[in-house]
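Input chain follows. Return structure tokens only.
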Amino acid sequence: MVQTTLKVDGMMCGMCESHINEVVRKTAQVEKVTSSHTKGETVIVSAQPLDIEALKAAIADTGYTVTGAEEKPYEKKGFFSFLKH
């Protein structure tokens, strides 16, 4: 699993977040996508690394701008993750 975080300029409200999430789902094979207009970011969880350039282009087509992207291995945070044996 891979977690991709995109910095997105132009999101102002919950509808903006929904537009971004919809575009991401249509453009890439994702497990989960959440956007935050207050943080100015979209976090995507996918089985495989994503085509960042394709996502940037699809998001740009909707009037938003991706200003940065970061990929890292996704670690599911469970309720008991603080219990290390």
